[in-house]
Prior knowledge:
Layout: H1 2-26, E1 32-38, E2 64-68, H2 69-72, E3 81-86, E4 92-101, E5 111-114, H3 116-121, E6 130-137
Parallel strand pairs: 1-5, 2-4
Antiparallel strand pairs: 1-6, 2-5, 3-4, 3-6
Amino acid sequence: MANAKIVLVAVAIVAVLHVSCAAARRHGGGGIPAVMTVNGFRRGEEGGGPAACDGHFHSDGDRITALSTRWFANGQRCHKKIRITSARNGRSVEATVVDECDSRRGCKDNVVDASKAVWEALGLDTNVGEVPVTWSDA
């Protein structure tokens, strides 16, 4: 009888922790601190060449990002969604990783380089240029 109660309590605790962690992920809890910068993903914009993930240029109206080299992880995050949360206003948005911000060629190690659409979805002014954010895999 005592063992059954212990098992039930353990199951209840695991369930509560699971729900709490899922809620934290949805609301930006526990994200990796980063600096978000503005990037152009169209041909001829400051982003440079075509995106590393697919060799294409993309619309600045798409919610897309380039991640610093270590976070890009040799392309392992290509076409995957990340959740970006503004440290200024707490808003969050999901965006797709399409490119690398090459840390071997001048990009800092803590950058989420985002399209104008990401900035707009977060309610941020692109003229600021850099803002503190957190990010996590979505």
